[in-house]
């Protein structure tokens, strides 16, 4: 890929720019906040400002609610031949882009499955995407060239491209990312009702189970709001299981012997299903394996 | 502490024995399964078998449902002057011990807040308790000498003794350990309903949020069953918050504009409360600080 631009030099945009620089591409860096773009450039992520002629690919690394307007603006300005984004939801931004009259033939949505608790260009890491899945959501009208460039971007960043439909993507992240985030938030909320002595007993388990709840509330509102129906569906199923467990615990605590036995059996089944579900998370491939796979594909 | 015995040479018992050996105490090791005691001794954790005269302190490192019967048995046999345990729940075993007619003046319950996903003596680590809280739950009738020896045990293991009532302990771990475990299990259970493509998108957040769900289902049934009323209470409050979030997401997905706005505001508030709750988990003290504090106290 001879030329690229990154619009939005926060954590993800700057990390992409740093990864491109490491592969010999010097991206143009744009941000509504010029200071953020200068900071990214100062880190060696590229050069500040717009190119004189359109680049091959522009990466829109802006929050999900700004993707459509940003695409519309930079297609009108002729920033790039092709466009992709990195937003955590894919259906809604594309619908909004269609409503604004964007040229969707030259846009393929993307979502690198990587992040950090920190945000901003100073938290960026050129290896943030190494070995991580990078979802691409082409549609029936996408140009093969556009998809090819988005795929090449993912590969240059060391990620593993995964092509799926945008609705399929949004259901998947409702399950693997958005519901876990809300569950962790609700669990962490319980700690507001504990006293300091109780909280002294916090161990690594609680720290891990609530880590993602520390993420920025405004950003996560945008992400989850843009995928609300799919998240509500998974969370409602979670709530059904939860009620059965609460009932089982009440039987265990005070029920007659046969209810007590049934409650205990239900609790064991619920915990065993958790063990099974946990085991479904794929083991990570070894670093070398990922990188050679990427090198072969790029 | 001149002499000690450890009954139950699993992960926790063997880790305690290794820690004592590192401080110059050679514990007697007993286990219903002689092979486990021999394995622990082979790791350098102490000597297999019962002492000829009572030791100062015996540590009952057996599952919560066996604490009372084990205490009763070894008090009759005269294994030790004083006894403590390491079970994750404290009220129920003590009630059961009272029913069996144990001498509770010479028993002080204990709970070191440390563990690993693995179990058995081969997973033991002499530094497992370094800097971790170690709860002690004396009651009105406990001898000061018994409490002193239990406290000395915690300090010899490098832990930080925390004295509280047994009901207070059980409410605290319902909040900081048992509810998080069940929530992680129910979250992991959702993954049984995802397909392989969806699960490929699993990131570090999901891995962390569900890590504790991998724990042994039988052991956790015993732990949570012995604390069922306190866990049910926290989990029921979690369920109330959850329902409000599900309603907010449904309003966000399909509600009229004013419901949509209210749903969005509710979502932001829920996420912000999660950030606040997460921030209540105390930062860990630096290792050096912990160890010097322990050295001063022991």
Automatic annotation (TrEMBL), chains A, B:
Residues in Prephenate/arogenate dehydrogenase domain copies: 2-279
Keyword list, A-Z: Oxidoreductase
InterPro entries, alphabetized: 6-PGluconate_DH-like_C_sf, NAD(P)-bd_dom_sf, PDH_C, PDH_N, Preph/Arog_dehydrog, Prephen_DH
Keyword check for Repeat: no
Signal peptide: none
Top-level taxon of origin: Bacteria
Keyword Lipid metabolism annotated: no
Family indicated by similarity: Belongs to the prephenate/arogenate dehydrogenase family.
PANTHER family: PREPHENATE DEHYDROGENASE, PREPHENATE DEHYDROGENASE [NADP(+)]
NCBIfam families hit by this protein: PRK06545.2-4
Full protein name: Prephenate dehydrogenase
Species whose genome carries this gene: Streptomyces incanus
Record lineage: Bacteria, Bacillati, Actinomycetota, Actinomycetes, Kitasatosporales
